[in-house]
Specification:
alpha+beta, Uridine Diphospho-n-acetylenolpyruvylglucosamine Reductase, domain 2, Uridine Diphospho-n-acetylenolpyruvylglucosamine Reductase, domain 3, five-stranded antiparallel β-sheet, four-stranded antiparallel β-sheet, 35% helix
Length: 295
């Protein structure tokens, strides 16, 4: 049995927000793939919860009036991977979340839960960071949008205020149009393991496929929160697609990441593999975009 205090069933988004204000100690329950395990472990035992899992309005992928790709926060990982909009425009996100846990976890786990728990190892986080995602947050006072660079405040803490829930994740057209991405997860096992380090890169090439028009790179487990590597991005943007430029780009990520020592891996190893992953990921992006690296 699960040791739960009171479970409040939200009927609408507005109802969920009201319940959270009325019961400020209550926590949000979505898919439950993290929360229920933590209850069984005792870390959230006896807590009150506001259950939003039945809010179908928070599911699905669409393109909105502003041409953002809109991903409802309760959309499961398995649905994201199979969605035709994701496959057409940001297939790398589908590939990234397809590395979460096993099939059962991917069927129940949600993109909102993955980004609201605030952990740096979340497989979706580095890709969303690299694609300039925007978090749509709804509360009793209305809707606000939070750029992902401002979303992660510190480890396991995100910009959610009292009475708010995350309702969607938006990918702006400028971030996905003519862009090609690749995600690499380094872990001890190929499945059912969290990332030792994760690296997500996307590129937009010039029309003649000779230069990097725009490059974005995000990391997980390279800092207390998911991060970008702006020094490396600034260096490579506008440069020719050469092996030397890619080498320098990959080495420059070290200026912006700050991995830690842990029982999973040491800081030195994480720094080393971050450079290797940057090199491999950007090369794969070039290939996906129809370009060629000149050595």
């Amino acid at each position: 049995m699960y040791d739960i205090g009171t479970l409040y069933q939200a009927e609408t988004v507005e109802h969920a927000c009201r319940l959270l204000l009325e019961h400020p100690e209550a926590q949000v329950l979505a898919g439950g793939s993290d929360v229920l395990v933590q209850i069984r472990e005792g870390r959230r035992a006896g807590k009150d919860f506001v259950d939003i899992y039945m809010l179908d309005e928070l599911r699905g992928v669409s393109i909105d009036d502003e041409e953002n790709i809109r991903i409802g926060s309760l959309t499961s990982f398995s649905h994201i991977t199979k969605d035709p909009i994701i496959q057409k425009y940001i297939n790398v996100l589908g590939e990234a979340v397809d590395m979460v846990g096993g099939p059962q976890i991917r069927a129940i786990g949600t993109i909102g839960g993955n980004t609201c728990n605030g952990v740096t190892s979340a497989d979706s986080a580095s890709t969303l960071m690299a694609w300039d995602a925007v978090m749509e947050v709804t509360g009793t006072e209305g809707v606000r949008r939070v750029p992902i660079k401002d979303w992660y405040i510190k480890a396991k803490q995100v910009d959610l205020r009292a009475g708010e829930i995350q309702t969607a994740i938006l990918i702006p057209k400028e971030s996905y149009e003519n862009c090609f991405g690749h995600y690499i997860k380094y872990s001890m096992r190929n499945a059912l393991d969290i990332a030792t380090t994760g690296c997500s890169v996307n590129v937009r090439l010039s029309d003649d496929k000779s230069t990097f028009e725009r490059v974005r790179i995000g990391y997980g487990v390279a800092s207390p929160v998911p991060v970008r590597a702006p020094s490396a991005e600034e260096f490579i943007n506008g440069k020719e697609i050469t092996g030397e430029n890619i080498k320098l780009f990959s080495e420059m990520v070290l200026e912006d990441i700050n991995p830690r020592d842990s029982w999973r891996a040491g800081r030195a190893l994480r720094r080393h593999i971050s450079v290797v992953m940057a090199d491999r990921a950007i090369r794969e992006c070039v290939r996906l975009a129809g370009g060629e690296v000149h050595e």
